[in-house]
Amino acid sequence: DAGVTQSPTHLIKTRGQHVTLRCSPISGHKSVSWYQQVLGQGPQFIFQYYEKEERGRGNFPDRFSARQFPNYSSELNVNALLLGDSALYLCASSLRVSDRGPNEQYFGPGTRLTVT
Amino acid sequence: AQTVTQSQPEMSVQEAETVTLSCTYDTSESDYYLFWYKQPPSRQMILVIRQEAYKQQNATENRFSVNFQKAAKSFSLKISDSQLGDAAMYFCALAFTSGTYKYIFGTGTRLKVLA
Questions:
Q1: Following DSSP, what letter does each residue of A7-18 receive, concatenated?
Q2: Any idea what DSSP says for residue B9?
Q3: CA B12 to CA A1: how far, in whole Å?
Q4: Residue in A42, A99, A102 closest to B105 by CB
Q5: Measured distance CA(B79)–CA(B76) in Å, rounded
Q6: pLDDT tens per residue, range A12-56
Q7: Measured between CB atoms, does B91 come within 8 Å of chain A?
């Protein structure tokens, strides 16, 4: 079975531009989370979506937005790019979101975004 | 504020030996979950072990075990019989839900395994 896939692998953008990153979860998984990992640091939680609804949000500005589609794939959008947005963007999928605690997350390989 | 602190940027261990990676956290939540993730060089992050805060028993997964001290807010990872394939960045993470989910990762510890 295919794991979590992300596209594109690498991306170079200019300050002020907009970017869309894509994620396809493992088949059968209904939850997708997005993380930003700046070089040398741990992942920072951006969003979690489950059944097309936002279920969690980290401390990121409104320039960051996301959505989940009926097939459970997801897009992360970043507007008005800043140099500080340069990072590895990770997507993780999990089977479900439960009140009994977070399910195991399976991470994708990430999209390396460079803003110049 | 919810925080996760990994005070060891880098650790080394001889092959077949045991190493312990430290993690402390701070949260005002009573219901939370703790994780250790492994990120090998240029490879995807994978879950190593998970601990529910309401469980007193320390989690174990083969050669990996944790020492969960809830009162001290400490969650260390012990790797026994270290193997070359254990070399990676290890991240401690805290997750909780109070209406919505939130995950907080530490800054990571780079583990080197010496042959």
A1: E-SEEEE-TT--
A2: S
A3: 35
A4: A42
A5: 10
A6: 999 999 999 999 999 999 999 999 999 888 999 999 998 899 988
A7: yes
